[in-house]
Amino acid sequence: MPIRKNLAANLRRLVSGHASVAAVCRGLNMNRTQFERYLQGKSVPNRATARLICTYFRIDEDDLYRAPEVPAPEHKALLPIHQTLYENMVRGPAPAVAGGTYFTYFTVPDRPDLLVRSVTFVRREAELVTFRRVTRWAEGHRQGGARVLGWHYGVAISRLNWIYFAGINRRQTREPSVMTVQWAPFSDPVLVGKAFVLTGSGPACVSVIMRQEVGRISLRQVLGMCRPVSLDDPRLDQLVASLVREG
Fold this sequence. Notes:
GO terms for molecular function: DNA binding. This is Mlr2113 protein. By secondary structure, this protein is α+β, with helices and mostly antiparallel strands. It is 29% helix and 33% strand. The longest helix has 14 residues, at 2-15. The chain is globular, with a radius of gyration of 19 Å. Residues 139-148 have low confidence and may be disordered.
């Protein structure tokens, strides 16, 4: 089937930019035999696995199955005012934040015992800093909290010692988001601030904490940790729990 051939060709191209197939499989926490079936055009991943692959390679799902000879659709030229706004947003100085994986914790309105743990992937390309943030809201935790899946993407900028993460949700509502944080005065690097998020009763301003994950953890494990978490959970980062309790 053409879709399998397209998938195989695109995956081979994407893998060629990494150390090896084995390294990619480790990053995806995926069985190599199964991944080889995708590379050989013998199988197509299910929707969840396809999203995992797209998140790892930082591409859209359409790009995974597009015929290699078909160029990606060109975006319409921005109107002058839009172009000006974008150029002003990404103008230096670049924020002092390293590229990598950051667990991002949001407080929940009317639920002081609960946090929503998301994951933010930060990418640096010279002076341009972009990000993607994945948020999930598990069944059984719907009171007063976020109701939609979040896959926000956008740019990070620095102004007056604050770092602004400005983006838009690619899922469902496509609402814009803004999060502003700064480095807290601790020996452990941690970013603290505020964020405007969508809740069941509408937009709300909540507290936010970001900590970089520096250990060896697979993408699947990281995404699996995107869920509500109790402040009493012993597995919760204790610095995060302490900061929330202290307000």
